[in-house]
Each structure stands twice: as structure tokens, then as C-alpha cells.
Amino acid sequence: MYELRQVTKLYRKGRKEVAALARVDLEVADGEFLSIQGPTGSGKTTLMLLLGALDRPSSGSILLDGKDLSQLRSGQLTDTRARTLGFVFQNYNLMPTLTAAENVQAALVPLGVPPNEARRRARAALDDVGLGERAGFYPLELSGGEQQRVAIARALVKEPRVLLADEPTGNLDEGTRDEVVALLEGLRSSRGLTLIVATHDSQVARRAPRTAVMEKGRLRIRNNQSNGGQAE
Amino acid sequence: MFFTYLLRELRRRRRQAALVSLGLAVGVGLVVTVGAASSAASSAQDQVLHSLYGVGTDLTVTKAPTAGSGGGFHFGGAAGSAPRSFSGSHIGSSPGLALLSNTDVTKVAALSGVRSAVGGLSLISITFSGQFTPGSGPPSSTTGPPSFSANTVSIVGVDINNPAVGPLSGTTLLSGHYFASSDQDAQVALLDASYAKQQGLKAGSTVTLGGSSYRVLGVVSPPSGGTGSDVYIPLERAQALGSAANQVNTIYVEAQSSSGVSAVSREVSGLLPSATVTTAATLASQVSSSLGATSGLAGSLGTWLAVIVLIVAFALAAMLSLSSVSARVREFGTLKALGWRTRRVVGQILGEGLAEGVVGATLGVGLGFLGAYLVGRIGGTVKTVVGSSTFPRAGGALAAAAGRFRPGAALGGGGHTVTVHLNGTVGLATLGLAVGLAVAGGLLAGGIGGWRVARLQPAEALRQVG
Ligand SMILES: Nc1ncnc2c1ncn2[C@@H]1O[C@H](COP(=O)(O)OP(=O)(O)OP(=O)(O)O)[C@@H](O)[C@H]1O
Ligand SMILES: [Mg+2]
């Protein structure tokens, strides 16, 4: 589980310092589905990068299972990313030179998985997102929704405990958006993942039982009553 | 994954990669070519010495002609005013060389420190034919140019009992056989391969010299890369042909040991004060200075060219690597997000550079061998003038020693031109250097790209749009 205490992230813009995050407190339980919603520039990506051990806060602490990410050495952060965290991006960020299966295998490289096993696991992960048929396709041969599903398979192939998705549906039409969100929800519940989705789309945000609403670097929690039945 | 990713990436930007490899290849090719050219220059020096000297000959003794002596070439022209055709032939001992007697050879052979000394008589045979109008002055456009053709054949009489020293010593028998000891006064000849080919002669043919027929015993190739005489005949036949009974114009001397050469040289000078004694050492300095000037210039130009091309190739490789890394910032950010260690990402980029370097090295070695081959083909022959100012009297001696006569040079009385085939060999050290440079270029490019990536913050990299 995550425990954020008084997390502040300052960016220097010329002379001024901008607080992309200002004294944010947040707890996310294991297996929870949390959405982060807010207008552009409100600090969603900044928060996701901190949760993803990809950046360090200017102050405050970010505990993941009791370990403070702000204090870990960069090698340990890398290790955390490799084993514990899966990341999905708005622009899919697939390697254009690698096939769908190879893109998924790339996530197993830091874990030292032998090639045969890596191939097998990549195929299984693609099957899980319904893309087994497309394993040999290059990203440019896939639709946006399919690319995002490959990216989800890549995030999940290492069996992480947390899946972080920053605007995963930002480039998708409504139908595809709903499919992708449904896929993420299904994977969360079947695998007991912690799922955190940042979005400016309130439709998507409301699918989660709890939403962290961001406004100019500040965060407040909103419970989505209408969806309460789906959450525990 | 490493190789798949590497090869796909290089394929994606194949033009760029090819450009980098090609740049490195040209640099490497130049290094190999320059190396081959300089090895060619130094082996050419050896060749010049061998071809001038013959293997086994430590020094030669010759004598410069005094005015009016030496080979006489007097062509009588009949008086008259009608256009007339003429033809004729003449054989004489080589102009530029005075005659020495057989007894001089015996005396030299008897000197202490001399293992053997043999005489050689080089002759030049000129046959000519043409048309001219006596007394009409220089040809004008109305009378038309006189037609005239002349043919020179160089002949050398050799001591058939002592083939290890003298003009034949450096030759290789291509067909037929050498002289037998019974051939002392026989009308037999050995032909130089190119002369035989030009005249359509082979072992068993006959060749006409001074109006009489000589049976061709065999065909020889000249001393490695050097020049031989057109025709080799027994010394006594040459003396008869050249009307120089018991006379020679070069004495070939083999010393008992190479360290004794200078002592022998002094002894000979004492014995024959008017003779010119030429040793390998005196030749070498002349050969080196004239060959050195040409090949040194070419060598340093080539070296600079290679250095400049390599610098440009390195800079190009580094720049293209940096630009490729900049275009892939988000890709590397993603890899870091996937948990790839920085050194794994850097290794990937180094691998790409290394691959470009290896391809460049391979191509470059190919180019280098091509260059070395072209050095042999285009810059194939180096004309070296020896025996000019430093050794004013050596010209004739060298001409005789070389066997083949070039009338222009010899009649001019100055230096003697030796044409040497450049034969560049590609040394392992040069190859190693060249390959090392290309690989270093590739690694440098990869290293600079890798350094850029290592400094990349994943958060920044991932925020990059595009
Ligand atoms: N590297 C940076 N340097 C300076 N300021 C930055 C940097 N990165 C982000 N910011 C600023 O921090 C604030 C929060 O940005 P962030 O990307 O977290 O917003 P966001 O909620 O993800 O917006 P969007 O919906 O457009 O993705 C913005 O004002 C942004 O300009
Ligand atoms: Mg954002």
C-alpha cells in the first residue's frame, strides 16, 4: 500500500518555483482502484511519476509497503519499477521497431527471465488482453486501442502489484475507452492489483470507488457513491 | 532481446547507420592503403637494389668512357638529294661504359676477400629503317615528316660458368634451361620474358643477332620487379658480336662476406684507379633519397588524408548518435520506467555504435585491400633515377648492372632510370590499427549517445512529447 505524507513537488520555471504538488496526503490500499482526476496542469502526471518511482518529491515521504521511495537509491528505485510497478501511458510508448510480443518481453529484460520463458509469458499476457492473434504485429500495424492493450500486457507480464495508468484512454474514442477501462478493472479484480488511473475524463474517474481530485497541486478525496456497489 | 532490438534499431535508421559505417570504412580504408603504400615503397627500395645489383653481387666495377671512346655509333649516310630509304643495324658495346679487359677480371678475382668475380659485356643492338631527303633541311609541313623507326635490343654477355654472380643471378627460369658449360662459344641465348613475348619467341626458336642465328635455350623473368636484359648470350659470343675480344664492361664481384665489402671496394679502387666501384651502400643512399622523396610525400599526404577522414567520420558518428538519442528520449524513458537499468540502456546504444564500427571496419578492410591493389595497379611503377649528381660516373655502371638498357638515360650520360613495380602488402599491424580505429569510432559514437542517455531523468524523458 501507498502512504503519501506532505508530498510537495516543486518545478523551477525560470525564476519562479511552481508547486506541481503541494503538501499532498494520500493512502491507497492494496487491491484498491483509485482514480485521479483534474484539469490539465493540475499535477496528475507529477503525482503518477512519484507513485511510479520515476521521480523524487521535493519534500515529504512516499511509502510503498513501508519503504520510503524518496529515500531509496536510484538502483533500488529501478528495481522497484522492474518488479512491483506496472506503467501505462497515454501515448502507449511502444517501441516501434519491436513486435507486440517483443514489446511485452522488454518488461522481462530487467528480471533476467530466460528467452523461452519470456516468449511464453509474453504470449500469455497478450492472450490475457485479447491480442494473442496480434503477437507478431508491429505497433504501427495496430489500432490505438490495440496498442494500449499491448502496453497493458507489457505492464502486467511481470505480475506487478501496482498498475499505474496515466491518461490510458486519452487518445481513444468512447467505445474503445470503455473497453480498455473494463479490461483494467477486470485485471485488477482477477489479480488483486492496486490500480491507479489518472484521467481528466470524469466518466472514467467515476468508475473507481474513490477519486483523488486534483486542483492546482492540491488533492482531495471524493467517494463515488453511485458506484459504491462495485467497490468493497 | 539485445540483438533483436539492436538490429531493428539499426534497420530503422539504416541510412544514418550506413553513413556512419561508410565514413569509418573510408577512414579505415585509407589507413590500410597508406600502410600498404609505405610497405610498397620500402619493398620497392629492396627491389631497386636487387634489380640493379643482382642477387649475389656485392659490388660492380665499371669505367666511365673518356671522350671519343666507348661504344661507337656511327651511321654512315650516303650523299644525294633524292628521297631515299635506308635501313641498317649496328651492335656496339654500351655507350657510357668503357671497356675493361679479361685480365682485369682475373686480377679482381685474385684479390683477398673476393669470393668470385665475373665479367659481363653489355651490348646494344640498334636496327633502323626509314626514309629521308638528304640536304632538305628540317622537315616542313610540305615535305611531310620523314618516317623513321629504330629498334633497340639490349644484349648482355654472361660468364656461363659462374651464373650465381652477374646479370643472370637474379633471374628466374620460366621455360627451357640455362646455359650448359659446353655452351661457352655456342650460338645460344636466353631471352627476357617480355622481349620473348613481344617477338613471339620461345625456347627452341631462333633469334637473329648481328646477322647470325642463335638458338633460344630458355626464357627468364627479370630479377623480382626489376629489369633485365632482353637477350643473354655467352660472354665470348658477345665479345665477338661487339668486336670486343677479351673485353668486358662490367665486373661483378662477390665478396667473401658482407662485412668485407668495403675493404674489397678499396682494394679494387687501388687496383683499377680509373674504375668506378659501386656497392649496395652507395646505391641504397641514392635509391632511398629518390624513392623516399616520392613515397614520403605520397605517404604523408595519405596519412593526413586518413587522419582528416577519420576525424570527420568520428564527428559524424558522434553527431548522428546524439541526434538519434535525442529523437528516442521517450523510448529510453519508457525503458527506464520498465525497470531497465541505465547501464543496460547505455549498453544497447554502445552496441549500436559498436555494430556500426564493426561494419565500418569490415567494409574498410575491403576498401583497404582494394586501395592496396590500386596502389599496385595505378601507382604501379615508380621511376627511380639513380646515379646522377652524387655519383656522376655511376650511371653507366648502373645501366650495365641493371642489364636492360634504356638508351635515353644511358646515352644522356647522367642517371639511370629504374622502373620498379610497387607491390603493397597489407600488414597485420596496419589491419589491427585500422579495425581498432573503426571500432573505437563506433564505440565513441555509442559512448557519447550513452552518456547523454545516462544523464537523462526518466520523469523528464517521459514528459517529452513526440
Ligand atoms: N519539467 C517541468 N518543469 C517545470 N514545470 C513543470 C515540469 N513538469 C510539469 N510542470 C508543471 O507542473 C504542473 C503540473 O503538471 P502535470 O504534468 O503534473 O499536470 P497534469 O495534471 O498531468 O496535466 P495534463 O492533464 O495536461 O497531463 C504544470 O503547471 C506544469 O506546467
Ligand atoms: Mg499529465
Describe this protein with a few key phrases:
heterodimer; A: 232 residues; alpha/beta; Rossmann fold; six-stranded mixed beta sheet; four-stranded antiparallel beta sheet; 32% helix; disordered C terminus; B: 466 residues; alpha+beta; 2 domains; two-stranded antiparallel sheet; elongated; binds adenosine-5'-triphosphate; binds magnesium ion
The chain pair forming the largest interface, with residue counts per chain, is: A-B, 32 and 25 residues
- What is the string of helix and strand elements of chain B? HHEEEHEEEEHEEEHEEHEHHHEHHEHH
Instruction: Kindly state the number of beta strands of chain B.
Output: 15
Q: What is the CATH fold-level name of chain A?
A: Rossmann fold
- In whole angstroms, the N-to-C terminal distance of chain A is 16 Å
What's the helix count of chain B? 13
Tell me what portion of residues of chain A adopts beta-strand conformation. Answer: 25-35%
Bound molecules: adenosine-5'-triphosphate, magnesium ion
Mean pLDDT of chain B: 78
Structural class category of chain A: alpha/beta
Tell me what portion of residues of chain B adopts beta-strand conformation. Answer: 15-25%
Supply the number of structural domains of chain A: 1
Taken from the alpha-carbon principal axes, the silhouette of chain A is: globular
Task: Give the CA-based shape of chain B.
Answer: elongated
What gyration radius of chain B follows from the Cα positions, in whole Å?
A: 32 Å
Rg of chain A, Å, rounded: 17 Å
CATH architectural name of chain A: 3-Layer(aba) Sandwich
Number of contiguous helices of chain A = 7
CATH classification class of chain A:
Alpha Beta
Largest sheet of chain B: 11 strands, mixed
Oligomer: heterodimer
